[in-house]
Amino acid sequence: MAAQACATHADRVAIYQCDGCAKPLCADCVQASHALFLCRLCGERAIPLGGVGPATVKEHAKRQRLSRRYTLAQAFFYPFRGFGLYMFLGTLVSMAIVEFAVRFGIGCFPFLLAIAFWSLMVGLQFKIVDTTAEGGDELPDWPNYLSIGERIPDVLAYVGIAVLQFAPMAAYFFLVGPQQLLTDDPSLLYWIGFSTFGWLGSAMALVALGAAGRFGPGAALRVDLHLRAFVAAGREALVIANLVFVLGITVWVVRLALRAVPLAGAAVAGTLGAYWIFTSAHLAGLLVRRNAVVFEELYD
Ligand SMILES: [Zn+2]
Ligand SMILES: [Zn+2]
């Protein structure tokens, strides 16, 4: 179809056509209403031509968000940005309360509280993936507290992702035997093998989290699709997988080192844990956002 010129601006390509006066309209000749774009000439609805222009104001806002430049370095400030910072602080306080209740509480109530809280955290991670894939750069609000129908599949998918995360390491232990790790001095080769398999699990879990968060819990265990998505995303998948792996190891090592420090150590360890949870989910969402075509073709 040949490009049509705007009825008012002959030098501009029309990307809408008015549903009322039927005139071709450029981006300047439509105005955003509450939800739709309207013709500036007669006020009727402007329909996007050939699927080029955004059909709704929401779609327009999404495109704007997606076209904004956003680097991987910026992703590391994700939990502290804008309104998300309050979510991050609120999560830390909730984590402390749950931890305190489990440690000093009596009866089974604290454990029910912990289960409820952590299943919500799982839902929040999937929501982070989804809102990130949609172009969001700030922490979203909590998922619906009472939606048990959503929480259970989410938690099952999360368990599946955890299995993918640790399966390669378990296979390594099975192949090489765990003895080496129990001796004082495992060889360098052993550590290289260990980190390679650890990296594989981390990369697989990254893609699985991205897929499940974006396309629903059912996508979590599609290892075949995860592999294809990883290969198709190429260098980008490699870079993000490396970032998530190094971030995970750093947080794990620091948390281990902080075990000896009472209270302050626990506070820093908790903060780092929450930071890791949010940032790795955001990076998984970014992988999907930057490779939207690949992911949609495979999982949708
Ligand atoms: Zn019109
Ligand atoms: Zn125009």
Describe this structure in words.
With 300 residues, the protein is mainly α. The chain has 2 domains: 16-66, no CATH class; 71-299, no CATH class. Helix content is 64%, strand content 5%. It contains 11 helices and 5 strands, in the order βββββααααααααααα. It has helices spanning 57-67, 72-75, 84-104, 109-133, 148-176, 179-182, 188-215, 223-233, 235-257, 264-290, 292-299; strands at residues 16-18, 24-25, 30-32, 37-39, 46-48. The strands form 2 sheets. A 3-stranded antiparallel beta sheet has the order 2-1-5, with no helix packed on it. A hairpin with a 4-residue loop joins β3 (30-32) and β4 (37-39). The model has no long low-confidence stretch (mean pLDDT 89). It binds zinc ion (2 copies). The site of one zinc ion (ZN) has 8 residues, from loops. Residues 6, 8-9, 12, 25-26, 28-29 line the site of one zinc ion.
Structural class based on helices, strands and sheet pairing: mainly alpha
What's the total number of strands? Answer: 5
Ions and ligands: zinc ion
Order of helices and strands: EEEEEHHHHHHHHHHH
Total individual domains: 2
Fraction in beta strands: under 5%
Tell me about the largest β-sheet: 3 strands, antiparallel
The helicity comes to 55-70%
CA radius of gyration is 24 Å
Taking the alpha carbons of the first and last residues, their distance comes to: 29 Å
How confident overall, as mean pLDDT?
A: 89
How many DSSP H or I helices? 11
Broad shape:
elongated
Regions with little confidence, pLDDT below 50 for 5+ residues: none
**Strand adjacency order, main sheet:** 2-1-5
Which oligomeric state applies? single chain
